[in-house]
Amino acid sequence: MASLKLSLAAKTDVGRKRDNNEDSIGADADLGLLIVADGMGGHQAGEVASQIAVDVVLKNLRSMAQSERPSLPEGSDPALALKTNQLAFCVRMANQVIFEAAHKFPKDSGMGTTLTSLLLDGDHYAVAHVGDSRAYVVREGAMQQISDDHSLVMEQVRKGLISLEQAEKSNMQNILIRALGVESKVQVDVAEHPAMDGDVVLLCSDGLNKMVSDEGILKAVLEQKEPLAICNRLIEMSNRNGGVDNVSVAVGQVQRTSSLQAVRNFFFGLKAR
Fold it and tell me: Taking the CB of the first residue and of the last residue of the chain, which one, N or C, has fewer CB atoms within 10 A?
């Protein structure tokens, strides 16, 4: 019997115009998890918020994965899988931790962050998302965005008030209608998407997609075969095109692994210790 696994890489870069990096990234091959968070707030509070978000999701998902009696967390959707509900719960928990920290420490007041997370669970992806960082799936030479931008201009596009071309030229692109840590509760977009052998999944902060077109992103993914090489190429492209913002990229390559191969990997991993 075969199963799908993710080969992962994630990188972040300050860019060419900013003094500090407010993005944070997370990746866990054992969980099949990728995370990108893009913080906001003065006096370096943005980088605090984004790092809290990544840390909370990673820590709690790892703890849940080790539980001998996993159960649906509070606020679960019975129509979704256990791990999808766990991922969404961890994102909501991150929102609460950031919100409370912002009120406890005056220097961090007003901080918040986007967070886009993707977890490979068997034959599907679980996605939990807030903000305008993005998640893409590349399959058979085509790329599809599987997250919605929670920005003012994209909300106007969805309502038919402005065109996509107008949104891309708007000076209000950075205004978010949803982010972690801004309010005590947050609506998290949660979805499941089918996974296939050979897929490449890509998460990024807006420092990438504002500097590199979707066509350019797809071209880099198709030309670079390894996740780390894809990350490096896309960050290079963003910086070459101006690098006006921090840029973060997390990439997972889906591979089918047989049960026999998994046993061999485990055995030889033990021998190598």
Answer: C
Contact criterion met (CB below 8 Å) for 119 and 102: no
State the residue for tokens 């990188």. 11
- Cβ–Cβ < 8 Å for 195, 99: no
Nearest to 221 by CA among 245, 194, 247, 251: 251
Please give the angle made by the CA atoms of 169, 171 and 172, to the nearest 5 degrees.
110
- The two tokens of residue 220 are 């880099």
Phi and psi at 239, nearest 5°, equal -70, -35
pTM above 0.85, yes or no: yes
Residues in the chain: 273
Rounded to whole angstroms, how far apart are CA atoms 58 and 70? 16
Model pLDDT for residues 205-243, shown as the tens digit of each residue: 999 999 999 999 999 999 998 999 999 999 999 999 999
Enumerate the H helices of 30-81 as residue ranges.
45-65
Domains assigned to the chain = 2-272 (3.60.40.10)
